[in-house]
Amino acid sequence: MAHYSRLSKVVIDVPAADHDRELAFWGAAAGEPLTRFDRHPEYHGAELHGQEFWLLIQQLGQGSARVHIDIHTDDLPAEIARLEKLGAERVQQAHSWQVMRDPAGPLFCVIPESWPGTLNDGNAQRWD
Amino acid sequence: MAHYSRLSKVVIDVPAADHDRELAFWGAAAGEPLTRFDRHPEYHGAELHGQEFWLLIQQLGQGSARVHIDIHTDDLPAEIARLEKLGAERVQQAHSWQVMRDPAGPLFCVIPESWPGTLNDGNAQRWD
Residues B120, A50, B27, CA angle at the centre, nearest 5°? Predict the structure, then answer.
């Protein structure tokens, strides 16, 4: 059974103390208002100008600020298994998505794409 | 005089010891061969599937792996000045681009876009 995946988002993770000015900075830097996600209010984001690619700011409880990539997929178990075979490791499940670590250490997330047909031959990679 | 800018790339910075397997991992994860840049051989990259957005892997001499964002602009001094007013700081110049630090700490780069008209009202933000 084939599935699709794509790199869909870049996310800046920011501790609470720096969150508001970081959110204001990146919204102004990109020229896109970053709006709060109703279902996950720790995230603000916008689709980048003319691209099917999102910028998000995530509020963290603690830790130092960092940047991570999100991969979206229409088959989460199949995509996780594919990425594990390539050398990534599972770190933890968070809400509906999976946090993973790439071979050199940076974390990334694999997100199930809930809208049927959103990932297709025109905008994503098909894995047979 | 108006200028344009846009978020154009996500770059994974990787120390030499981890570079080759990280490059192989992300090329396979994205399903795009990441090819070496002739003029800057420490970089490999590809335009992401169906998007005007690039993924790059940069080989670092040392340090721990991290992810950063690149902003492209057709007027480097004007864009640096704009971002400084928003709260970013200059860190260093590297080749033709400027390394900056955002208000919460992560580094990002501002890159001059050498092809006239590449940045326009259809794919970038205009700053008057």
Answer: 105
